[in-house]
Amino acid sequence: MPDEPEPQPSLDPAARLRLVAEQQARTQAALAPDERLVFGAWGVAWSVGFGAIWLATSGRLPLPAWSAFTLFALLLVGAGVLTAVHAVRAGRGVAGSSARTGAMYGWGWVLGFAMLPAVVLGAQRLGAPPEAAALLWPAVSALVVGLLYVAGAVAWDDPVQFAVGAWIMVTTGAGCLLGLPALYLVMCLAGGGGFLAAAAWFAVRRRRAGALRPAAQA
Asked: How many distinct structural domains can be found in the chain?
């Protein structure tokens, strides 16, 4: 008679729970956006873009103001598209409300920045002076970013994302009170610096998590 296969030892309940938890963690890591990339993109966009505008409008750099604003607009669109793509990716492969949350959040970024020119152009049609329009462009865009980060924090229960969104809104208000071109410098240093600090924090957290995981599995 052929040898019967030896019965495989069954996992105890604790081991099964650990296996399920590890699989869920791997799935979430594969679907979740890379916070280092998202926050880093916004940090670079704001630091470089607002820095260029401040240098051009304050006369510290022989650079036409329109070219600095164009550079900032391109950086802003790039960071917004990257964030929207990552938000949609976070909901890909997930059914139900999680998928809808990621899709609606991603489209929120697209619609927010698509309607931004309408707000500023509408103010200009009502007689807003050029100085007011120059303040509205960065201020409204910053408020859109801050509010969307707060919305994302609520959707995914992320205190860091809420802190960044709140910081962006507070620094925007403070910069508006200082006027131009001080607003641009505030957004460059405080706004862009806040994003870069968040990106660095997530990088450190991921490095620590990667160092602790092999020790936990040993």
From this structure: 1
